[in-house]
Amino acid sequence: MHLRVLWFLVALLGLAFAQRIGVIGDWGADSPHRPQIAQALHQKEPLEALLTLGDNFYPRGEPLQRFVDELPRVKIYPAFGNHDMPALEQQLRLFGVEQPYYTVQLGEVQIFIVYSEVFTTQQRAWLESALKTSQACWKVVALHRPLYSSGFHGGNRSLRQSLEPLLLRYGVRLVLAGHDHDYERLEARGIVHLVAGGGGAYLRDFRSAVPQSKVRRVSPNFLVLEATPEKLTVTAYDQKGGVLDRVEIRK
């Protein structure tokens, strides 16, 4: 077989076995770009699942089914943010999860959803146990409040002090967050942090860039994760499906 043809077939096989996971943050607002983000997500199908980064419904968390119906027809795994707290029980029932922190394995990726609004010692113990026993190729932590951010709210120092030792000890390579209504890629101590809070909420500009910041965009956004055993690729898109940023994490 011609070498070029062989390489093409290998590439196709790699794509076939890659898990593709959509990610949106701060999406549940009735803004002009929320339905545009939903439509752009459809253009990236097939997706295995959709992960949210909290603030699923503004202003006080009451679920709106029409927002959910616009999204791709895949299983939704939500994180929960400050705007979700008043109607947390309703959202737990809507999305079919028992509590606001949990873990799910999607092929090569295990996602650890952290409830950043009330981060108790009990939750920290759960997270350490789950990370320690995980055999996944890729460990990804998702939460609402970012550990690092140059945005309006900035990084959460208390969460960073509690979580970062666990991330380093148990090989977490990627942290996904929302809360700041922008897109930012940061790198800290060998871990990639992505803030993707532009799924529907009105945008905010950045404050002064923190030293860990690598890429900043004031734009509506969503992410697509693509995972194989060898690499984890995350692409950030705008509301028209244009590429804002791409990062590749290798073993």
UniProtKB/TrEMBL annotation:
The keyword Signal applies. The keyword Signal applies. Gene3D superfamilies: 3.60.21.10. GO terms for molecular function: hydrolase activity. It holds the Pfam family Metallophos. Residues 20-183 form the Calcineurin-like phosphoesterase domain. Keywords: Hydrolase, Signal. InterPro entries: Calcineurin-like_PHP (IPR004843), Metallo-depent_PP-like (IPR029052), Metallophosphoesterase_PAP (IPR051558). This is Metallophosphoesterase. It comes from Allomeiothermus silvanus (strain ATCC 700542 / DSM 9946 / NBRC 106475 / NCIMB 13440 / VI-R2). The lineage of its organism: Bacteria, Thermotogati, Deinococcota, Deinococci, Thermales.
